[in-house]
Amino acid sequence: MRRRSFLSLPLAATLPAAPPESFTAIQGVCAWPNLQKLADGTLVATIFNQPCHGEWEGDLDCWASTDQGKTWRFRGRPAPHEPATNRMNCAVGPARNGDLVVLVSGWTNRNPKGQPSSPLTGQILRPWICRSSDGARTWAHAGRFPDPPPVGPGIDNQFVPFGNIETAADGSLCVSAYTRKDHTRNCCLLRSRDDGRTWGQIVELNPIGNETAILHLGGGRWLAASRMFERPGDAHHIELFASEDDAKTWRRRGPLTLPGQITGHLTALPDGRVLLTYGNRNTGNFGVDARLSADAGGTWGAPFRIANTPFSDCGYPASVVLGNEAVTVYYTRVSQGYFYEMRTVRWELPRKTA
């Protein structure tokens, strides 16, 4: 697949006169939400519970909605922080036995709440393996997440999990996780063959990427939307990767967004299409945008706007499908200083054309 095939349609978002109405779901959190739909229809958002980019202590919490995203209530805390640390970067998904699995890393050398720490201090914490069998209310920790390969940014470092945990064709669970050091990033895919209790079988997904959303299309075919770090100082964009051998090897396919449009989330629609949602941080055009593919990621329709935001400090959307609608959650700064919130937008999916 040539790179230009992804650029054959305009990448600038189509701005409707009135995007769907969004509303505040959780105030005072930077969130970076992960969104899951449980078997009983409950929506669970897993979030960082502080209004900062990890500069001080904080926990990873779960909030639940039993009315299709209209209202949200605190439900449980998978990862309460230890003193002088936080727990914030996570991947979430269902185990085959119905449990909810959360993998969560964080940072050392964090000051108490409200007292910012230098972003240049601290080390990445080894991810915890958290598990709930009662709909995200109570949590158990068990197992040890593996070290990254001792090369490049993996040397004396730990993985940072991201996005959804997906089930492979062979029945294993898969997750993306990356390493970071200075201006270097490396994203890998890890497998669990015991329903999320232990993880291994590390393969490289994107050697110059970090936050990567993965999606199993079925039959061992996968897509990944990966945030690129090609050169220091670049305005990052999202690149598409694909696998045809059940996530064992990956091939770079081409750009999905323009520079300054990050980080992505992939969702399979009931009609076979694939939905990409992502944050747009381009000057004068801040918000959350979406694209659709009707051919398993081969080509993509033009972007369209689903939410406006007042600042560039926004995005990290996650979406689930409810009939012919989608519920998308995202974070945004709402005013200068440490004022953030998670917002929700419920919007109608465009009809599939012949």
Low-confidence stretches: 1-7
**CATH fold naming:** Neuraminidase
Tell me roughly what share of residues is in helical segments: under 10%
Question: Which CATH class is shown?
Answer: Mainly Beta
Tell me the number of helical segments per DSSP (H or I, 4 or more residues long).
0
Main sheet summary = 8 strands, mixed
The total tally of domains equals 1
Can you offer a commentary on this structure?
The chain is an all-beta fold. The chain has a single domain (3-348), classed as 6 Propeller (Neuraminidase), CATH 2.120.10. It is 0% helix and 50% strand. It is built from no helices and 24 strands. It has strands at 22-27, 31-37, 43-48, 60-65, 73-79, 85-94, 100-108, 128-132, 140-141, 160-167, 173-181, 184-192, 200-206, 209-218, 221-228, 238-243, 251-255, 261-268, 274-280, 287-293, 304-308, 314-322, 325-335, 339-348. It has an 8-stranded mixed beta sheet with strand order 9-8-7-6-10-11-12-13, with no helix packed on it. It has a 4-stranded antiparallel beta sheet with strand order 1-24-23-22, with no helix packed on it. Strands 2-3-4-5 form a 4-stranded antiparallel beta sheet, with no helix packed on it. The two termini are 23 Å apart. The relative contact order is 0.16.
